[in-house]
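Q: Hi! First time doing this. I have a protein sequence and I read that you can turn it into a structure. Is that right? Here it is:
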Amino acid sequence: MRKAIIDLPAELVRSITWDQGKELSSHVAFTVDTGVQVYFCDPHSPWQRGSNENTNGLLRQYFPKGTDLARHSRADLDAVALALNTRPRKTLYWKTPAEALDGLLHSAEQGSVATTP
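A: Yes, that's right. Below is the predicted 3D structure, encoded as structure tokens:
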């Protein structure tokens, strides 16, 4: 996650909200390395991170719950990421996540961050 975030403009990454899992147990080091503040959801409160829960649902189409991702190649994981990032989303006014991110990156280059429509 550090590698992905470090290349984004600071205007696009201000904080991350995480659940109570062990995945981000080194959150302090992550914040020091990236400057991104980490917040934690309350236990058993998935509505506090709706975008993440929606993405988990989309990922379940490819990887059933409990799947060991280490058994999949980088190419397999990249193919799923490409499929999800090029799939139009109603919440993005039927843009793909890739299109929305490109628009935000372009706006950041111009000196301001635009909202999505």
